[in-house]
Design brief:
- Chain B: InterPro entries: ABC_transp_permease.
- Chain B: Keywords: Cell membrane, Membrane, Transmembrane, Transmembrane helix.
- Chain B: Its main location: membrane.
- Chain B: This is ABC transporter permease.
- The structure holds 2 protein chains of 2 kinds.
- By secondary structure, chain A is α/β, with parallel strands linked by helices.
- Chain A has 17 helices and 23 strands.
- In chain A, helix 3 runs parallel beside helix 5 and helix 11 packs across helix 12 (about 380-395).
- The termini of chain A are far apart.
- The model of chain A is unreliable at about 1-10 and about 510-523 (pLDDT under 50).
- Chain B has helices spanning about 5-30, 40-60, 60-85, 90-110, 135-140, 145-160, 165-175, 175-180, 185-210, 225-235, 240-260, 270-285, 290-295, and strands spanning about 125, 140.
- Chain B has a single domain, classed as ABC transporter involved in vitamin B12 uptake, BtuC, CATH 1.10.3470.
- By secondary structure, chain B is mainly alpha-helical.
- The mean pLDDT of chain B is about 90.
- Classes of the chains: A alpha/beta, B mainly alpha.
- Chains A and B meet through helix 2 and helix 3 of A and helix 7, helix 8 and helix 13 of B.
Chain lengths: ~525, ~300
């Protein structure tokens, strides 16, 4: 059908022609053409469900296209499986699913490399690469003990060790510090100069503008535009992507003088996990009518802190955690929810929702009591479905309705559902981890606005996130967690991204805490 | 207790534990790849009858063991075809295999009912068999006893040190991720299941050719189920399988000695007979209760079908 292009030198590294992928219920990709030149950093933009991930899986051989052609360096190829893709020189950094939790970092890397490098030598190489590219991770640790951010670092390191000629990156920066993002970009530019092509999937438009040479925009499984990001603005690219202007968060001044809904006073807790982080003497108050953010690089105690607040991990004494004034340290998660705590965990599937259960059933799991889904000891499925339907409608969750299984939703839509489920319970205190991780711009803006609206109605909101821009957009006060210690919380207006970036390495002016924090500590 | 009695009991313990070790280690490997084969009892029964028939016909216990191995593998191949190729439910298929194997072996074994084989002589290892007390018990044993020790070291090394073992564990943990980085998940699972079947067949052969060299219907007597339970209670770790199997064998032999000694004791004999089962479970649960180690060693995708996305 096609022969190698006679004009070498201008042979594209990868060319897709008319790629189409049909699933039983949807057409995920429809007639997609895409060309990537050697050394080009090519962005693929699109909302959740636009077909980006399907397209990447086709290139990497995880799924087969229903129709269309793939040309690799001028030759038509069939990428039957990932092994074939890797043999061609295609590497992929996955967003979600390709690490083995019970194995160590080094073993995970070893599995993905051809040949059999001795583990000791490999450990050394991992250490070198992680040092060189600013992706610190201990090769001997087990993956299950790593945070989401650390896992992503392992994915990236694993790919870089394979010296690929085309690197597919699925939202690689979502959990990195601003400094680490800069170092990663330096790495990617270096790779690009060396001739490696990069397919870069992201919803962060400013990053795409800074890094990428060209961009292809997908909407509803079709290519809706091409652009050169350097010549566009984030607003114009957002318009290409979602077909309308980007919603802007409205953020009024915080109400002052609200009662303290969450008080952490001297919270210390040794982690069960040998690789976990111990919490050390944490002080924080969250008042009604304010959003407090906790920034920090993942793996610095966020998971442990969340578990101590949510009640998944009960602590030794009652007083260090007070919810609505009640000493809650020894209470379990259900008892704490009865005090008005609602909780959005970091992992959507498995913690936030049961993947194989319907949305209505998932709603029952946390909202049974607060939303009145139980009558005389029996579940009312009609009410549960009505509650789920309301959540779906109010939060614009694109799904097959209340009976759809949680796992059938895209990440962003499931997150909207989980946030909606908690928000509709009118909590007194909402604790939210990574509210917009892996969520596209439109949905992220929506979730942020929902959190702000909740605060405006007098709820106390605590947000733990690794995205500084997000925290600065929605929070009234920001604290930083580093190595299990929490910095003082500062009003957003009195700090900057640069300051917080420095604090993230644990260097905050501990000698001179803000007066408010002294008062907190003394209380 | 005098020395001769101790030596006798140790000898009998080792013999009683051997089939459990062989079968359980095979099952451990296939479960580490994520495949739960509950058909161990049936595979052992088929291994036992095949080994008996071939040994009876040829007079060679070695050919008999080989036949047992082949029979176990053939059963495992059926199971693999059902669960890995046709994606049938592993639990249901395994139960069916257990019932089928026990029934078919009884049918095939009908002509051999109450036929005895000559006892196979033990292999005495020079010098170390002369060690007082334990020498005679440990080093004047059947070839398959030595094989079970070699198998233990081989499985231990394979899982912890070899790259193939690493790949196998990866497949058991997350077949989707293993597929995504290019490993042939279904093929690897087939190999693991076949290995499990082969070892179950050898374990069955040990029973009918060495342990009680005769054929009786139902002679496997639940050992396949015990081996399955051992693997779980040992939290998928070879050393604990070894400890558990000998513990089971030891308590079994001890209570038999007590029952046979004519001692007047107030315990009901049923209680003594149940002792090996619950003693093994209690001990293994107690030594394996560290939740982190359980999480590190249990195959996360155990029992779940996987088909590469088309």
């Amino acid at each position: 059908m096609s022969s190698p292009s006679p004009t070498a030198g201008t042979t594209p590294r990868l060319r897709l022609a008319g790629i189409r992928k049909v699933y039983p219920t949807v057409v995920a990709n429809d007639g997609i053409d895409l060309t990537v030149e050697p050394g080009e950093i090519h962005a693929v933009l699109g909302e959740n469900g636009a077909g980006k991930s399907t397209l990447m899986k086709i290139i990497y051989g995880v799924t087969r296209p229903s129709a269309g052609e793939i040309h690799w360096e001028g030759e038509r190829v069939e990428v039957a499986n990932p092994a074939r893709a890797r043999a061609l020189g295609i590497g992929m950094v996955f967003q979600h699913f390709s690490l083995f939790e019970t194995l160590t970092v080094a073993e995970n890397v070893a599995l993905a490399l051809p040949g059999r490098p001795p583990l000791a030598e490999l450990t050394q190489r991992i250490a070198e690469v992680s040092e060189h590219y600013g992706l610190p991770v201990d090769p001997r640790r087990h993956v299950h003990a790593l945070s989401v951010g650390e896992r992503q670092r392992v994915e990236i390191i694993r790919c870089l060790l394979q010296n690929p000629r085309l690197l597919i990156m699925d939202e690689p920066t979502s959990v990195l510090t601003p400094q680490a993002v800069r170092r990663l970009f330096d790495t990617l530019r270096m790779l690009s100069v060396e001739g490696c092509s990069i397919l870069y999937i992201s919803h962060k438009l400013d990053e795409i503008q800074e890094l990428c040479h060209t961009a292809t925009v997908l909407r509803g499984g079709r290519v809706t535009g091409h652009c050169k990001p350097a010549e566009e603005t984030p607003q114009s690219m957002a318009r290409l992507m979602i077909g309308k202007d980007l919603p802007v968060c409205e953020h009024g001044p915080a109400a002052t003088g609200g009662e303290a809904r969450l008080q952490l006073s001297g919270l210390s807790h040794a982690s069960d996990d040998p690789f976990g982080t111990d919490l050390r003497d944490i002080h924080l108050d969250v008042h009604a009518g304010e959003i407090v953010g906790i920034a920090g690089v993942s793996g610095n105690g966020q998971q442990e802190l969340l578990r101590a607040i949510s009640g998944e991990e009960r602590i030794a004494e009652k007083f260090p955690v007070r919810i609505g004034g009640v000493e809650a340290g020894r209470l379990n998660a259900a008892q704490r929810r009865r005090l008005g705590l609602c909780f959005v965990p970091e992992e959507r599937l498995g913690r936030g929702a049961v993947p194989s259960m319907s949305l209505a059933d998932n709603a029952v799991l946390t909202a049974a009591r607060n939303a009145g889904l139980v009558r005389g000891g029996f579940l009312s499925f009609a009410r549960a479905r009505r509650f789920a339907a309301e959540c779906i409608e109010r939060f614009d969750v694109r799904s097959g309705g209340p009976r759809a299984a949680a796992k059938s939703l895209s990440g962003g839509n499931l997150q909207k559902f989980i946030v909606g489920r908690e928000v509709l319970q009118t909590p007194r205190l909402l604790v939210c981890a990574q509210p917009t991780w892996g969520v596209d711009v439109g949905a992220a803006a929506f979730i942020r606005q929902a959190l702000i609206d909740l605060r405006n109605r007098g709820c106390a909101v605590l947000v733990i996130s690794e995205e500084l821009d997000e925290l600065f957009e929605i929070c009234d006060r920001i604290a930083v967690i580093a190595k299990g210690r929490l910095s003082p919380a500062r009003p957003v207006a009195e700090t900057s991204v640069e300051d917080i970036g420095v604090w993230m390495s644990g260097l905050w002016p501990g000698a001179e805490p803000l007066p408010a924090e002294v008062a907190d500590a003394a209380a | 207790m005098d020395g001769a009695l101790f030596t006798n009991m140790l000898f009998a313990t080792v013999v009683a534990g051997t089939p459990l070790i062989i079968v359980a280690l095979g099952l451990l490997v296939s479960e580490r790849a994520g495949v739960l084969n509950l058909g161990a009892e049936g595979m052992m029964a088929m291994g036992a009858v095949a080994a008996f028939a071939v040994t009876h016909a040829t007079g060679s216990p070695w050919l008999g063991v080989l036949a047992g191995l082949g029979a176990g593998m053939a059963m495992a191949l059926v199971f693999g075809f059902l669960t890995l190729t046709l994606q049938a439910n592993q639990v249901a298929s395994g139960l069916a295999l257990a019932i089928f194997g026990v029934g078919l072996s009884a049918f095939i074994g009908k002509p051999f009912e109450s036929v005895a084989l000559p006892t196979v002589p033990a292999i005495r290892i020079p010098f170390i068999a002369d060690i007082p007390l334990i020498g005679e018990a440990l080093y004047n044993q059947q070839a398959l006893v030595y094989f079970s020790w070699a198998l233990f070291w081989a499985v231990l090394w394979f899982l912890a040190r070899s790259r193939a073992g690493l790949v196998l564990r990866a497949v058991g943990e997350s077949p989707a991720a293993a597929h995504a980085i290019g490993y042939p998940v279904v093929l690897i699972r087939y190999l693991a299941v076949l290995f499990g079947g082969a070892m179950a067949g050898v374990g069955g052969a040990f029973l009918s050719v060495y342990y009680t060299p005769m054929w009786m219907e139902g002679m496997v007597a639940g050992r396949g189920w015990i081996a399955l339970a051992l693997v779980v209670f040992a939290t998928w770790r070879p050393l604990r399988v070894l400890v558990g199997a000998y513990l089971f064998g030891g308590v079994m032999i001890t209570q038999l000695f007590i029952q046979g000694s004519g001692l007047q004791i107030d315990f009901p004999s049923q209680f003594l007979s149940s002792l090996p089962y619950w003693a093994t479970i209690v001990v293994l649960v107690v030594i394996s209760r560290n939740p982190n180690l359980i999480r590190l060693n249990s195959p996360a995708s155990l029992g779940r079908s996987y088909r590469p996305d088309a």
